[in-house]
Amino acid sequence: MVPVTIAEPAVRSYILYSSVLALKVLGMAVLTGRVRYRKKVFANEEDTKRTKGIVKYDDPDVERVRRAHLNDLENIPVFWVLGALYLTTGPSSELATMLFRVYTAGRILHTIVYAVKPLPQPARAIAYGIPYLIKWYMGASIISHFIGAL
């Protein structure tokens, strides 16, 4: 295992992009609330009183944002784990930074084309697929690096 220190540019890059992704996940809750208030559709009765809204569990716009949020919750934590483990393989700082940067940009773009300004396919598939392949690359690199330790 390669020592991982905060002095390494790749580690600092990982911390930066991981923080951006964490804030992005938090922002999805705000986006969901914004859509709920704009459409005046809520999941709880007590939330309807202030805006004279209604309880509705299947509003398509709210559900689209919720699916995007769920997609983040399914994908970003895996990036955090694989990215941290990937750093232990001693990748070049340039390659690691590029992977972290492209992954982050792809996840942000995915939210935009899926939940903010929906675009027809293949926009969402590309925005999802590139970060997905980056996770596979990092995972395969980790396995390849450590397979001899068994």
Write a concise keyword list for the protein shown above.
elongated; 150 residues; mainly alpha; two-stranded parallel sheet; 5 helices
How would you characterize this protein structure?
There is one protein chain. The chain has helices at 9-39, 45-48, 60-87, 93-116, 123-146, and strands at 41-42, 54-55. It has five helices and two strands; from the N terminus they run H-E-H-E-H-H-H. With 150 residues, it is mainly α. Helix 2 (45-48) links the parallel strand 1 (41-42) and strand 2.
Estimate percent helicity.
over 70%
The main sheet orders its strands as 1-2
- Unreliable runs: none
What does the radius of gyration come to? 19 Å
> What's the end-to-end separation, in Å?
13 Å
Mean pLDDT score: 94
Q: Structural class from helices and strands?
A: mainly alpha
- Taken from the alpha-carbon principal axes, the silhouette is elongated
Order of helices and strands: HEHEHHH
| Strands, count | 2
Q: Mind describing the biggest β-sheet?
A: 2 strands, parallel
How many DSSP helices?
A: 5
* Residue share in β-strands: under 5%
Produce a short descriptive summary.
With 150 residues, the protein is an all-alpha fold. It has 5 helices and 2 strands; from the N terminus they run H-E-H-E-H-H-H.
